[in-house]
Amino acid sequence: MLVREFMTTDVTSVQETDSLLDARMVFVRSSFRHLPVLRGKALVGVVTEHDVKQFAPSLMSGISPEEYNRVLETTPISRAMTRDPVTLRPDQPVFEAATVLYTRRLGCLPVVENGEMVGIVTTTDMLRLLVRMIRDQGLVTEGSSPAA
Questions:
Q1: Residue 100 in contact with residue 87, Cβ under 8 Å?
Q2: Which of 1, 11, 14 is nearest to 80 (CA)?
Q3: Centroid of chain to Cα 76
Q4: Which end of the chain is less crowded, N or C, counting CB atoms within 10 A of the terminal residue's CB?
Q5: Tens of pLDDT along 80-119?
Q6: Where are the domains of the chain?
Q7: Is residue 84 within 8 Å of 109, Cβ to Cβ?
Q8: 24-32 mean pLDDT
Q9: CA separation, residue 65 to residues 11, 54, 86 (Å)
Q10: Are the C-beta atoms of 120 and 111 separated by less than 8 Å?
Q11: Distance CA 112, CA 91 (A)
Q12: What is the rounded distance in angstroms from the CA atom of residue 132 to the CA atom of residue 60?
């Protein structure tokens, strides 16, 4: 099985010039934990929900909500993102994707073809694939499968 057969192709991304507040709002309004960062159509990084939290000032420091928002509004994503992330090609085997996610302890792998991002593989995608494979192999005993 190849990466192209199970990657997520409807990917939400941000531009490197967008602000940390833009990324924060995507994270708040979705279940995403990782966002590919683009320059035009080219992948230049990945920003995580954790990255934004680490970069933002602590509200416990006494900073006002207005100042907190100002910092997030004026800080470009490029300041907090991981540059040159590990990527996959759509024609790579799923096993390679799983191995990289596991050994490098990553949460996502953008999929790039001809210099453009065409999809993403996340740990959630891998777990969905694992559930499907276990079910298809008949390795689930009756009553042990959660509703899917």
A1: no
A2: 14
A3: 18
A4: C
A5: 999 999 999 999 999 999 999 999 999 999 999 998 999 9
A6: 3-136
A7: no
A8: 92
A9: 30, 17, 35
A10: yes
A11: 10
A12: 44
Q: How many residues does the chain have?
A: 148
Structure tokens given for 54: 């680490």
Do 19 and 75 meet the contact criterion of CB atoms below 8 Å apart?
yes
- The candidate with the shortest Cα–Cα distance to 124, out of 32, 45, 1, 27, is 32
> What residues contact residue 113 under an 8 Å CB cut-off, 6+ apart?
89, 90
**Euclidean distance between CA atoms 116 and 99, whole angstroms:** 23
Q: Three-state DSSP class for 100?
A: helix
CATH of 3-136, one of 1.10.3720.10, 3.90.226.10, 2.60.40.1730, 3.10.580.10: 3.10.580.10
Q: What is the pTM of this model?
A: 0.83
At 42, list the tokens: 């080219």
